[in-house]
């Protein structure tokens, strides 16, 4: 009976320790993000391939994460992305956001670029109580996707021209083959062995 009581107390101690460790870990994770600043970006293109928690980079350096994505209620053609960036991130009034492709996997992340040394920080230029908004610019991915239909049309035109050239070459070869001059040359070769 006494050993059962001891196992029960040990079990409670282990469970209590595990819960305390988990709470400490959660507190530690959130304590590091206490000073982070939320910014808003509105993209006029698809954000397919991006997920919450994906990195936000400033010229290739991780400075934050994607917090949320939603269709902009003011303009449904836009996607409103909220990002959480470190307080010391060098986001200036002339910093621009764009979407970049990570490798060839289709994973997309937010890339911030620009920001001259003499420009004010966006956080300081934004009125208190409002979320600072980083302007976006069209990404190279969107440019490529915009050019794709034109490239396909050009390839299709090249294919039809190549088909016409091949049929013209086939016709010319057929005409040359049926030419009486070539037939005379063959007849002479065919007759030559008979003369011997």
How does this structure look, described?
- This protein is of the alpha/beta class and 196 residues long.
- It has three domains: 1-32; 35-138; 146-195.
- It has helices at 2-32, 122-125, 140-177, 180-195; strands at 37-43, 55-58, 61-71, 79-85, 95-102, 107-114, 133-134.
- Strands 5-6-2-3-4-1-7 form a seven-stranded mixed sheet, with no helix packed on it.
- A hairpin with a 7-residue loop joins strand 3 and strand 4.
- It is elongated.
- The protein starts with a helix and ends with a helix.
- The model has no long low-confidence stretch (mean pLDDT 79).
Which secondary structure elements does this structure contain, and how are they paired or packed?
Elements: H1 2-32, E1 37-43, E2 55-58, E3 61-71, E4 79-85, E5 95-102, E6 107-114, H2 122-125, E7 133-134, H3 140-177, H4 180-195
Parallel strand pairs: 1-7, 2-6
Antiparallel strand pairs: 1-4, 2-3, 3-4, 5-6
Task: Work out the count of structural domains.
Answer: 3
Sheet of most strands: 7 strands, mixed
Kindly report the oligomeric state of this protein: single chain
Helix content: 40-55%
Summarize the structure.
The chain is 45% helix and 24% strand.
